[in-house]
């Protein structure tokens, strides 16, 4: 089961995590395709220097292509607006946007074909693979160069956990932080809360369970919570309750066979068994919430625009920081896509790509992105710019918590980590549905 000390994240590297806003570990199993991919990557590495790409035009404009990792909704609209702003303020560079995820297979195929973009938005595990395959430009010379960051800027632009969480190779920086999605925030139906006699959102997980019971007691098709089970959120709840997640500081082996982890899983199982929490798949919880029959969601910050859109003004949607556990603390699990330059095109294009991604990661642009997409600021400077907005928009501010409480993916072991989460996801579902005991140790 999920609670085993033997859940070692060094196994299962044939699993690849797909991008998901809500943070549920999902994967594509590449068993049987390993030989093909190995040959494909070898071809791609050989093709890197020969990949054709449009350089400076007769007018002196350098053209680059950017795969936008947010191809739908408000996030797509805002990213296009940011690119338009960059093009308008940088007349010697033109960025063309293609709305496409930077997953391993399409990027490998593009590198092989010689038509890869210049800039991509990879998740941590994909970036780790791309760096190993030689696809990424080492950004360290740019970072340390005259158009890079001073030490003061690094400290101001990026929280330590955000910067260190993107260090996927010793001594080299291949990716630049761009966004952080906070996976622990409560969005709730204020109308149902009022009907259930709940005067304020829950401050603890125990209160959340009590509120869910009151809402479900309203009867009919009403339920307190709709949740697509997420290992990241489960791990955060374990930490909230004082449980241990890792066997050592190397973060290569889970240590979830502790009383707090068992108690957390038993608490969630109880909510399901009573009918106070219904389990959903993918983004179905957003559709259920939109019906008006769900009291609250355990959500990610970036889900706000989608949840509000699903509701369509039928009732007031409010937000509250995630509850605290028995330890008295409320952690937040944060992750998000980064910015990377592919090792293709001319030197002029790579320089232009650096100008573009450095601009995107700057405090003003990061704050603009966070305000539109409800992501979290990646550093103190962007947070400072967001203070007036947060003061007048408390629901959007609810997702932002003290960065000292942020839990992040283990950068050095991202691929194996996501594979382990995926492997444990099945057992988490079984335990929630009463098909396995929360105490049952895993033999996988």
Map the helices and strands.
Elements: E1 15-17, E2 27-29, H1 34-47, E3 62-68, H2 73-89, E4 93-99, H3 104-113, E5 119-120, H4 124-132, H5 140-144, H6 151-157, H7 160-164, E6 176-177, E7 181-182, E8 185-189, H8 190-195, H9 205-216, E9 223-227, H10 231-240, H11 259-273, E10 277-279, H12 284-290, E11 294-299, H13 304-311, E12 317-321, E13 332-335, E14 338-341, H14 347-360, H15 363-373, H16 380-392, H17 394-397, E15 406-407, H18 414-432
Parallel strand pairs: 3-4, 9-10, 9-11, 13-15
Antiparallel strand pairs: 1-2, 5-14, 6-14, 7-13, 8-11, 8-12
Helix pairs in contact: 1-3, 2-15, 4-18, 10-11, 12-13, 15-16
Structure, described:
- The chain is an alpha/beta fold and 444 residues long.
- The chain folds into two domains: 32-181 and 335-403, 3-Layer(aba) Sandwich (D-Maltodextrin-Binding Protein, domain 2), CATH 3.40.190; 183-334 and 419-432, D-Maltodextrin-Binding Protein, domain 2.
- The protein is 42% helix and 14% strand.
- The chain contains 18 helices and 15 strands.
- The longest helix has 19 residues, at 414-432.
- The N and C termini lie close together (8 Å).
- The model is unreliable at 1-54 (pLDDT under 50).
């Amino acid at each position: 089961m999920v609670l085993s000390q033997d859940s070692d994240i060094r196994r299962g590297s044939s699993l690849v995590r797909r991008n998901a806003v809500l943070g549920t570990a999902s994967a594509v199993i590449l068993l049987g395709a390993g030989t093909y991919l190995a040959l494909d990557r070898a071809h791609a590495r050989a093709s890197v220097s020969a990949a054709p790409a449009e350089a400076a035009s007769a007018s002196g404009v350098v053209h680059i292509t950017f795969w936008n990792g947010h191809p739908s909704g408000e996030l797509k609209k805002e990213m296009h607006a940011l690119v338009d702003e960059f093009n308008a303020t940088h007349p010697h560079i033109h960025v063309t946007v293609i709305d496409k995820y930077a997953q391993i297979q399409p990027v490998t195929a593009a590198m092989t074909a010689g038509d890869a973009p210049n800039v991509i938005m990879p998740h941590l595990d994909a970036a780790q693979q791309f760096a190993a395959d030689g696809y990424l430009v080492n950004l360290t010379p740019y970072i340390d160069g005259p158009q890079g960051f001073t030490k003061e800027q690094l400290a101001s632009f990026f929280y330590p956990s955000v910067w260190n969480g993107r260090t996927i190779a010793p001594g080299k920086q291949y990716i630049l932080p761009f966004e952080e999605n906070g996976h622990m925030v409560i969005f709730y139906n204020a109308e149902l809360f009022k009907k259930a006699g709940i005067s304020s959102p829950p401050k603890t997980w125990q209160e959340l369970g009590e509120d869910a019971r009151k809402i479900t007691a309203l009867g009919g098709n009403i339920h307190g919570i709709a949740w697509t089970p997420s290992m990241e959120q489960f791990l955060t709840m374990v930490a909230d309750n004082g449980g241990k997640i890792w066997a050592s500081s190397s973060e290569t082996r889970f240590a979830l066979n502790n009383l707090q982890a068992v108690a957390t899983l038993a608490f969630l199982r109880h909510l399901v068994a009573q009918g106070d929490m219904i389990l959903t798949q993918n983004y179905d919880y957003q559709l259920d919430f939109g019906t008006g029959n769900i009291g609250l969601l355990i959500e990610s910050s970036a889900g706000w625009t989608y949840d509000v859109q699903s509701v369509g003004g039928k009732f007031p949607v409010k937000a509250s920081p995630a509850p605290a556990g028995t330890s008295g603390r409320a952690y937040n699990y944060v992750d998000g896509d980064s910015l990377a330059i592919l090792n293709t095109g001319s030197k002029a294009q790579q320089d232009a790509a650096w100008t573009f991604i450095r601009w995107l990661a700057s405090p003003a642009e990061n704050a603009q992105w966070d305000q539109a997409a409800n992501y979290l600021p990646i550093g103190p400077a962007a947070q400072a710019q967001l203070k007036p907005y947060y003061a007048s928009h408390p629901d959007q501010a609810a997702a932002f918590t003290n960065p000292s409480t942020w839990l992040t993916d283990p950068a050095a072991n991202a691929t194996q980590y996501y594979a382990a989460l995926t492997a444990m996801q099945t057992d988490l579902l079984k335990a929630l549905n009463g098909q396995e005991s929360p105490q049952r140790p895993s033999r996988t």
